[in-house]
Amino acid sequence: MTVWEAIAVVIAGVFAGGINTVVGSGTLVTFPVLLAVGYPPVVANVSNSLGLVPGSLSGAWGYREELKGQSDRIKRLLPASILGGILGAILLVTLPAEAFTAIVPVLIVIALVLVVIQPWLNRKLAHRRSENDGGVLLWFGVFAAGIYGGYFGAAQGVLVMGIMGVLVSEHLQRMNALKNVLTAFVNLVAGVMFIFIADVAWLAVLLLAVGSVVGGQIGAKVGRKLPPAVLRGVIVVVGVAAIVQLLMK
């Protein structure tokens, strides 16, 4: 890797850290850059997942105020994210890419629809929503998003926000804070597993980590100031971009 290629990877990490904190889909920035500098697809995907972990944790810390009062949710949903991330990492090294990525655009479309109609659905489902704040459906939805995140990760945040938007009656910024914690642990457990079961490009990991930590803090400062309608619009734009890029591969 040349000096200029290393700089490009760091810059991509900054953008990805910021995007992941505000919405998700930072992988759509970093993954193509790693491919462009010469890494094979699986190595690039594995190194990308591991390198963005510090940025995810940085973004979660930046949203710590919005996490207050959500400890019960975190304790209940974190196991779902962790188990999903482990299973997704295993699938990455055992299944052909086509077996899973074929449905990725469909999943993102569903998530975007859920994000867009969330206010209407919240009003319609308010009287039906159980007191356990999402219940079993939310747990399995987060688990499924964790599987996807452990496998590839692009737009994982969009999926989680779409699922929670329908099943949880909560302010969008507080859901975004919770999303940052859940996706951070998906990336973390998947990344740790990749160390033992896949090839890792450690230089790429280090460069992405440095950039994503900076980006995570920038994303938290920007994202926390966005009104719900604007944040919802950002989610939709990023999600559509994810679909376009995935379909063009």
From TrEMBL:
Its main location: membrane. The keyword Transmembrane helix applies. It comes from Lentzea waywayandensis. It is a multi-pass membrane protein. GO terms for cellular component: plasma membrane. It is found in: Cell membrane. Coiled coil: none annotated. This is Probable membrane transporter protein. Belongs to the 4-toluene sulfonate uptake permease (TSUP) (TC 2.A.102) family. Pfam families: TauE (PF01925). The keyword Disulfide bond does not apply. The chain crosses the membrane at residues 6-39, 77-93, 99-117, 137-164, 184-208, 229-248.
